[in-house]
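Office hours follow-up: a student asked to see two folded examples consecutively, so here they are.
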Amino acid sequence: MRRFFPVDSLAEDPHSLILGFPKATKAQLKSRLKELKKLGVQDVSFEGPMVIDKQNVLGKGYTGIVILAKIGSKKVALKIRRTDSPRASMEDEARLLEAANKVGTGPRLIKSSKNFVAMEYLDGKKIFDWVKDLKGRGRAVKLKQVICKVMSDCYKLDMAGLDHGELSNITKHVIVGKSVTMIDFESSSLERKVSNVTSATQAIFIGSGLAKIVRQIYNVPSKQRIIPVLRQYKKKRTQASFEKVLEVLRICQAKQ
């Protein structure tokens, strides 16, 4: 049973550590609480796989802490900027997430401000845990469907000129639940050369712990077959070259 607390509790111990992680003055906490209320955040909850000083959170990164919150009756994932974050505000991350949303990828951006990003809450498992727990008949088909969605989203991002930036470590950056959604656009860029399709392919099929599990579930083509089509895709990022990657990987057959 999820327990929600009034947003004011974030300014009080022990929850104030989350609002101003790793250290904040009373004035900073007061300012941040006012900012949250202006966004319409009314309630917060402390649950999730990560623990900060005995408090559970949905996620923790070098720029922010993510917790479950409510805006009205709607559950949202609330990202709180760390006080020691290398970024001066959350505005760039919100802008990049909005760019991802325009091509139908990423959690939906709901609201943002200097220190906060409120986005669609995704109830599911990180892709590594989902694949690891995949059991029973038909698991190869389910796996291919999930990977097909990931690769299709990567292609959309490539076409939009938005590089995710963290897909070489894809295990933490895709949530599988009712939908399959790429998350965490804090390291994304519209300036870098895009490498979403190539990074995701290498992470899922070639060089990671995830790749080893994927190979146990279905007969993945050899590295010697995958690398040439990836190189061709890097030279010409076209629909045809992308479909050739999918063909070699033997996913998305229904779309070809």
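And the second, which I mentioned at the end of office hours:
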Amino acid sequence: MAKKVIVIYKSKYGFTSKYAKLISDILKCELISADKVTLDDCKSYDTIIYGGGIYAFRINGLEFIKNNFDELKNKNIVVLATGFMKGKKEYSELVFRRNFPKNISDNIKFFHLRGGFDFSKLSFKDKMIIRLLGFKIKHSNSSSEEEKELLQAMYKPINYCSKENVSELISYVRNL
């Protein structure tokens, strides 16, 4: 395993922070919110794990890595993106391509983890978007399984965060 590891996270509704804490606990490493981290905080670490939620294909708070990439590029950088959608290859690749320019993408190990959904925790704006999406799903004859799950989760929160979901990431970091 790399000598020193830090987990940095930006969590809007709590699922990314659950994964970040789980990873930090398993690897017995530092955990810090992206809102509090500085570039100086990262200098003494060999491996930086950054976690953020996916919103409209963008990874929340990823600017920290992108804006400081020149200073971080000699470190092992692992990015985990969390969202309600399953980590299907095509979707994960799309998220990756939309978030990382070529000069950065070759130096990033990317993981897409399924987080969860709790309608009651959403902001007013996000609730309105989900309600519109829910209306579309209800009136569609071709809704996907995930869309149907989202509709159900509007009434009963769902959480996919698990130790099993981080096992590949943990294994990767331990083998650095």
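Two things to take away from it. Strands lie at 5-10, 30-33, 47-55, 58-59, 76-83, 108-114, 116-117, 158-159. The longest strand covers residues 47-55.
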